[in-house]
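Box 4.2: Ligand-aware structure prediction
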Amino acid sequence: MKIIILGSGLLGVTTAYELGRRGHEVTVIERQPGCGMETSYANGGQLSYSHAEPWAGPSVLPKLPQWFFRNDAPLVFRPRADWQMIKWGLQFLRNCTGARARGNCVNLLRLGLYSRRQMTRIREETGITFDYAAKGVLHIFSTEKDFDRAKRQLEFQAKFGCEERVLSRQEALALEPALSHTSRAIVGGIHSVLDESGDAWMFCTALAKVAAERHGVKFRYGVLVNRLRTDGNAISAVVTDQDDLTADAYVMALGSYSPLHLRPIKINLPIYPMKGYSITTEAGDACPQVSITDGTHKIVYSRLGSRLRVAGTAEFAGYSQRINDRRIAPILRAAKELFPKANWNAEIKSWACLRPSTPDGPPIIGATPYSNLFLNTGHGTLGWTQAAGSATLVSDLIDRTLPGISLSGLTMERYA
Ligand SMILES: Cc1cc2nc3c(=O)[nH]c(=O)nc-3n(C[C@H](O)[C@H](O)[C@H](O)COP(=O)(O)OP(=O)(O)OC[C@H]3O[C@@H](n4cnc5c(N)ncnc54)[C@H](O)[C@@H]3O)c2cc1C
């Protein structure tokens, strides 16, 4: 089958690889000069399959008023006359009940654990390198309240096959000795032993190369998708700034920009850009070897080869990708406080990008009302984690084979 994939971020590249490997004739359309250059470029690096707690949940509600307009808060809303943002916010609040958060958590966990299996397969099939590490993710907590809540979450997730260990403060410091120099309170930790880490951009670049060389996938960079043309209940072409392209099937993987191209053809998806920031530095030996999530401050740390990546914050401010130094400052401050002996004189590269976020948490995968249009988008904070599983599921649907897990709660039907 001839298939066009729109976008070459993590989701586009992984889907292109998977469909190419199955013998399809695949072309990827991307506006940037290479793959993985937008949200998949410098993310937190965590393959956090066990991290299945959606942002929308009862515990976030009491924190919202303090977070709302504070510049150093983990989540910032910049209110604006933007109907999509208001609608998204209302849907987010609707998902903050315990029952909905638990349902979304189970769906995220199913997809996470399935993605782990698919990622293992892709690594073994391709042999690509991307500063991968399989040391788990260590979650640390500064308050007993946050720690207790995380332990309850662990007990819930354990019922669905998630393996995590509760650690005392001493055990957490023994697992990651670089933490022992901090003056920050650490009351305990949780080790998500199944989790991994790696550089998403390196992965995209290496996988795209394998897809092209071994499976004939064509990557057309520097091509802007303008719109989708329809004919009845099918897509008839992708109209770009260069030419009109046709295929038997089309996969929407334009990240935060997906809804902008779907709305004109009457598909309304609640995906809104949630801006996040990261810094990357060669911070030396006094940096963590194990990937860390600071559960209290919502900041993640990943060792990527010789580099340290620190990422966090969520800002709702439309489509601007501008780096706001006032949002970088709390990330850097938290990192220096947690790892005071790291080499903070080294050059620090700052980055910002837009997570394609759904109000309930899970991505939007699968069929649409158009017979030949498929979705692989809306992965929010977990697109690196879920890329391998999502790509396999979408490819199964295109191939009309039974997907490896149920798509319940992962398709656009949940918003009908
Ligand atoms: C600060 C931060 C930290 C994160 N940390 C983690 C983490 O630790 N673990 C994790 O699992 N996830 C993490 N994420 C989330 C993850 O990075 C995203 O979910 C993922 O990158 C989304 O991939 P995507 O392919 O959907 O989007 P993108 O990577 O944005 O890809 C979409 C592509 O479409 C292209 N495009 C858009 N419009 C057009 C057009 N009109 N024509 C042609 N091309 C177009 C873009 O150029 C882009 O390359 C983080 C995100 C951020 C911002």
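In the box above, the bound molecule is flavin-adenine dinucleotide. The mean pLDDT is 95.
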